[in-house]
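Write out this protein's structure.
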Amino acid sequence: MAATGGSYDFIVIGAGSAGCAVAAGLTAREAGRVLVIEAGPSDRSPLVKMPFGLVWMMGSQKRDWRYVSAPQAGLGGRRLNIPRGRMLGGSGSINSMVWFRGRADDFRAWATPGWDWPEVEAAFEEVEARLTPAPLATPHPVTQALSTMFKANDPAANPSPERESAGVFRYNMRNGRRWSAADAFLRPAIEQGVGVMTGRQVARIGLQGDRARTVEFTDGSSVTAGKGIVLSAGAIGSPEILLNSGIGPADDLRAAGRDVVRDVPELGANLHDHPGAGLHYKGAGSGYGLDPSLAHRWAAAPFRWALSRKGIFASPTVEGGAFFNAAGDGGAPDIQSHFIPFLVGWEGRRYTFGRGYFADAVVCRPKSRGRLSLGRAGIEIDFGLFSDPADLDLLVKGWLRLRTLMAETDFGPMKAEEAFPNGQVTTEDEARAFIRNRAATAYHPVGTLRMGADAQAPVDPRLRLRGVDGLWVADASIMPSVTSANTNAPSMMIGHRAGAMIAADAD
């Protein structure tokens, strides 16, 4: 897919969850001619549209950026894989499509004018009118059994980070297929004249005086924006492009051998993600897995999905989960659990034989912060996991309580035994060591271009990059703090609001 030549008023860099919504918003308001640039290919692949296809899309050479973190001191020096979508729809084309707004007090905690709960709630409602998220239509029975985790749980209500709850999650799917921001926002905008370039990687943004004016590609060509440029390349991609443009902390840029175009000291700071660790269960008659008893279902899976959009391949892998308070003291949920009704290997092999299920415990509101910086060899991504010891303390309590909750859940004859770590970990000290050795992130990086009313924040409350005219940022990088659940829905909300703001504010 490629746009024809010509001039554009707005250029949106990144066709992910936020960028697609930005383009649609600008077009709906007739703000001018819009071009969307995407480094990866189209999302027109059966493995993208098939919910279970994410198993093959994550780690794909073609459709995943395949970032790797710096060694994490809090994890004994381990590096973490960081899958990020590289195609139309962005990470929303390789994720599990879980749909949560977050808690209302997440947005109050941002303490940013115009971004409190009443303002963002209205935007969520408008986004959801297009996405129509709904509970998974065909969950595995073992996922449905999660509703018995809490005695006071209403099995008919959707789980929510606002209260202790468990069950089948909501998803942005339609008729058993992925329904991403590319489907809901970008394709309708293309019909209204939005141009799209795929397979074009941005090298840098060029300034004319104080104004962002050109987008330069790695092949040396460029395109010019008459009114402005919107960065929507994500919490890793957006600051990376700015750093490569000479915009960022001056000392870091000089150390990397780059000219300083604009000194933005906090650019790249405040990087964080949800840290978590899991429990693996294995047992005959439980969840899905590579097992002779399911051979006929696996053989039929591609045909069943193609014909009826049902069966194993209609599963987004994460089918449900829970929210709960780690201490179990009646306080607000501070832990999210993602539940996968498949046997997930723990031995480093891609495929494991047997049947089972998996659940993790993830810190909803981590305090630790890291940094994305530019070295001579490229970007360095340091989440700073557990740099604040309170996160590890909370995760230990939450992980141990999850084990108890899973034992108390009425899975009936589908109940499986804990296979890993099993009896190897029983005490709090053992759990602490286990989590340091096994913890990873939930693939929800945010915060590297923090939005705020204070002058130190790289982005102001109207999403303008401070110090550069005609340059806005609209993606998860602007979150001052991560929301209490999956971040795909908030990213679309940010893009949706950005379209309106930029159309109103552009010169």
